[in-house]
Amino acid sequence: MTLCSNEEESVRRCLKDDSFKGRVSLDVLNLNITQMDDLDLVASQTANRLRSRNIIDEQIKKIEALIESAEQYKKANLDNYLEYYKYIKVSEQLEVLERLKQAQYLNEFRCSKYPLYGRNLLAKLRGITNYKVLKSDAYDDIVFSVDRRSEEMGEVIDKYSVITPKVVAVDMKEQMIPVSTRTYVQSAALDGTVDNPFHQSQVKLSIAFPDKSLLQFDCGKLQKLAQLLQKLTSEGHRALIFTQMTKVLDILEQFLNIHGYRYMRLDGATKIEERQVLTETFNRDPKIPVFILSTRSGGLGINLTGADTVIFYDSDWNPAMDKQCQDRCHRIGQSRDVHIYRFVSEYTIESNILKKANQKRHLDNVVIQEGEFTTDYFGKFSVRDLVADTSIAVEVPDKPIDQGNGNMEKLLAQAEDEADRVAANAAMREVAIDDEDFDEEKNNGTTNGPVRDKLSSTMNDIGTGQNTRRTEDEDFDEGIGHIDEYMLRFIADGYYD
């Protein structure tokens, strides 16, 4: 389609141009002798015999006879439609006659082409004189071919072909290259026999990418972030920017580099030893105004009190994660007010995320905080009050359990069912046996008796209600044991406020 369109344009351009009328085509008149040597002599003779001159002459004579018989109808008579119809037919026959004469004229020239030597003779002569061409490697090293030169200049083209020309003339090849040459090159390119050595440079000079500073204008959040950072840095604030995706961190890095902000980055790929170094550097150096972090990696375990502004570039479905991120700078050691900014794109999924997060936050306030379902609420009561099933509505002052009574196991046993007491006795017996097995001194046979005596005395105290007191030495010898026992002893010793 491309070749046909180019040829059609060339034909139309030639028809509009009258300059060709003053030129003579030597090829048509068989005067271009060197071009006819590509013909075969036998084929030329055969074409001369088959030029069918007599048949065309007979057709011309028949048409001329018809025209002579209708001589009176060569002029148009508009008064009689029948005569006007005959006039049209005579005109058509005259047109056919002129075409036949032109075809006969061109056919004579085309069929009478004879080569001077002929293709066969030239092929034989070339075969005789085909000598081996001497080739030098030194010449190839000095004078590069077009393909090798384009390959050698590939790096230079990649680095320095960056500015596209202001004006490009697309149709210059049609004005400078002949149609035959252009057709040959296009057909060879379609067949894959010719490679364009200038393709890389043409592509580099034809494609212009937009300036990287225009990155922020593709996103409303980046536009607002640019305004916000300019305001914060001018007022001496330092900001933490949290996002959930590391790809967004890459975009924020490009954005901060374009605007010239000094920053630090922390994500899941940051090593543990590097996190502490980044944290201390940011808190110590006020010249670093921005710290970009991922929500999962930078939301826990670090202290960034050097910043007083938190910016959430995108929200999390879980509001507790955002709260953890806020606590990175809003914590003990922060001497300034902390401002929180949250970017939300309207009419997108982020609006729904924010709505669901607010609902979860409200549910937490109603059920957990206002319902006092927290450890702070139960901290107002002592263990004695909780075990004795006293009313938790009455506030009782916190008092440590009296160590002189030594009846903690008894109180716990009385509060449990019979089956639970039996299970607790069996569990304590197993704990004592395990302590005996893993104690090196007891395994050596030096202190086997006291453990079993102690276990029996403990079980008797629970069963009969007798008060016993364990000394610190006995607790040390017995070991930590089960976590429940350790917690009870911790509270009984008065360490619980």
UniProtKB/TrEMBL annotation:
Record has Lipoprotein as a keyword: no
MF GO annotations: ATP binding; ATP hydrolysis activity; DNA binding; DNA helicase activity; histone binding
Pfam families on file: Helicase_C (PF00271)
UniProt-recorded name of the protein: DNA helicase
CDD domains, sorted: SF2_C_SNF
Regions of compositional bias (Polar residues) in chain numbering: 456-468
GO terms for cellular component: Swr1 complex
A Gene Ontology BP annotation from the UniProt entry: chromatin remodeling
Keywords for this protein: ATP-binding, Helicase, Hydrolase, Nucleotide-binding
Cellular localisation: Nucleus
InterPro entries (alphabetical): Helicase_C-like, INO80/SWR1_helicase, P-loop_NTPase, SNF2/RAD54-like_C
E.C. code: 3.6.4.12
Top-tier EC class: hydrolase
Principal location listed in the UniProt entry: nucleus
